Amino acid sequence: MICLTPRRLKLARRQKDGDKAYVLRFVIEHPQDEDLATIPGQFFMLSLSGVGEGPFSYLDLPDSLGSFSALIRSKGRLTAALVAQPVGTVLGYRGPYGVGWPLLISRNSILIIAVGYGLVSLASYIKETCNWNLPANLRLLRISNGCASLEFDTACARWKQAFNVAELVVPDITDVQPEGQALQQIARLLAEKRPDAVFCCGPEPVMQAAAGLSVARGVAPESIWLSIARRMSCGVGLCGHCHFGTAYVCMHGPVFRYDHYLQQLRHCQPQVPRFGDWLY
Ligand SMILES: Cc1cc2nc3c(=O)[nH]c(=O)nc-3n(C[C@H](O)[C@H](O)[C@H](O)COP(=O)(O)OP(=O)(O)OC[C@H]3O[C@@H](n4cnc5c(N)ncnc54)[C@H](O)[C@@H]3O)c2cc1C
Ligand code: FES
What we know:
Helices cover 26% and strands 29% of the residues. The protein has helices at residues 33-36, 77-84, 119-131, 150-159, 181-192, 204-216, 249-252, 258-267; strands spanning 7-16, 21-28, 43-48, 52-57, 67-73, 90-97, 110-115, 138-144, 164-169, 197-201, 224-227, 243-244, 247-248, 255-257. A hairpin with a 4-residue loop joins β1 and β2 (21-28). α5 (181-192) packs parallel to α6. The longest helix has 13 residues, at 119-131. The chain is globular. The protein starts with 6 loop residues before the first strand and ends in a 13-residue tail after the last helix. The structure holds flavin-adenine dinucleotide and FE2/S2 (inorganic) cluster.
């Protein structure tokens, strides 16, 4: 039976990270086996009594003490209230939910494209890969609009010691003009070495363009994964808020294999709305 009752989660640390974002460290009060089985790219539902509940990505995964972190950007009522809570506040937690990034142990070349706050979901994948020393040859392209983030700057500086990290600052991270800097840089990296797999998280039109370029460069659609965002309510496939074609993003995603993503896109209205606002 699906249990929708939130578990108790304590805010253990909060640190400002740039303009409107905070890195929050949490501790799940009674961690369970399922917490340790969390996969990078999955999400959790976080609630504040009397305010609301929303989906968030793991910046790093829960450890055996139930401690993990998230990067939350103040966008509206819920996120503004969450980042304003003092250390010690008890919040509601449900998760882990959804489908995360595949752990491609045998693949030897993965190109990771993180656009804007899309790096949150991919950071836990990169951290796990580094922790377990998986034999993956990673390349990361971080595209941002130059917004300060100590968390990401520090992480990228550390990752540069271990693998190839390219950073690109563009005025508009949603720009999908073929001659724009972002797509040019993606095309360059694909031409330099064709990856065995591509992971991408960011605004949906940019992910679509990046996946299209990858396919044009000979990467199979079955070897490309995108993490997509939709408004969510239940988080477990019951309410229908997050439907995408015949799938529910909370249950069948948020990470979709590109061929499955295209299949669902064909079931949608011809005009696909611009989701993933929080990533901009
Ligand atoms: C799988 C997933 C993972 C997420 N991970 C993070 C994260 O790690 N950190 C983070 O800060 N935010 C994350 N979000 C977005 C976060 O859930 C929303 O910003 C939050 O719920 C908005 O609530 P609010 O009341 O503060 O803002 P609202 O007033 O509800 O919305 C403010 C603005 O954000 C947009 N928005 C709200 N919810 C979503 C959504 N689900 N998808 C796209 N746009 C939305 C609205 O269109 C509006 O423009 C994630 C969303 C999903 C679906
Ligand atoms: S959020 Fe309810 S079905 Fe996905």
